[in-house]
Amino acid sequence: MNRWAFWSAGALWLAGGLSGCATLVIPSRPAPDAERAEAVVHAAKALLGTPYRFGGSTPRGFDCSGFVQYVFRQAAGVRLPRSSPQQFSATAPVRLGEEHPSDLLFWSVEHGGPSHVGIYLGHGQFIHAPEAGDVVKISDGNARYWRDHFLGVRRALE
């Protein structure tokens, strides 16, 4: 996350807290570069069927954050941190309804913070490395499980 985004998000949070409002206002963001976004989506889809491997970050096997880290580095030259909480912190928030293909979707499935991440493909779909015994696949973000655990949208591409 660049310094402006970090400080502006912090300033918005502080202003909301001082005014007694508990809602964080997320500024509107320009869409990611279309060519880079397309490269990310294409690279992610090329890995469909790759086995899940806890701690994995190579085409031999991925966990969710290793998959995201690998795809963004290979397709767009973006170096993201390794874990989903770190990726959440290192990327810029996006308003719901303003997500674009290549944005990151985060869920809280194990504890209060980000514990799962996937790459948004458009039309409510995302690609991810879900769990042990599964493979990189496309899932429907509108399914109840994902809706119930949804945490937010973040952007790694400018």
Fraction of residues in H or I helices? 25-40%
Outline the low-pLDDT stretches: 1-22
Largest sheet: spatial strand order: 3-8-4-5-6-7
Q: What's the CATH topology label?
A: endopeptidase fold (from Nostoc punctiforme)
Q: What is the name of the CATH architecture?
A: Alpha-Beta Complex
Summed up, the helix count is 5
Quantity of strands, as a count: 8
Mean pLDDT over the residues: 88
Distance between the termini: 10 Å
SS-derived structural category: alpha+beta
Q: What general outline do the C-alpha atoms trace?
A: globular
Domain tally: 1
Q: What's the CATH class label? A: Alpha Beta
Order of helices and strands: HHEEHHEEEEEHE
Reported for the largest beta sheet, the result is: 6 strands, antiparallel
CATH superfamily: endopeptidase domain like (from Nostoc punctiforme)
Radius of gyration: 15 Å
Amount of beta strand? 15-25%
Short description:
With 158 residues, the protein is of the alpha+beta class. Helix content is 35%, strand content 20%.
Write the layout of secondary structure elements.
Layout: H1 3-18, H2 34-46, E1 57-58, E2 61-62, H3 64-76, H4 84-90, E3 92-94, E4 104-107, E5 116-122, E6 125-128, E7 137-140, H5 144-149, E8 150-155
Antiparallel strand pairs: 1-2, 3-8, 4-5, 4-8, 5-6, 6-7
What does this structure look like?
The protein is an alpha+beta fold. It has one domain: endopeptidase domain like (from Nostoc punctiforme) (endopeptidase fold (from Nostoc punctiforme), Alpha-Beta Complex), CATH 3.90.1720.10. Helices cover 35% and strands 20% of the residues. The protein contains 5 helices and 8 strands; from the N terminus they run ααββααβββββαβ. The protein has a 6-stranded antiparallel sheet. Strands 1-2 form a two-stranded antiparallel ribbon. The protein is globular.
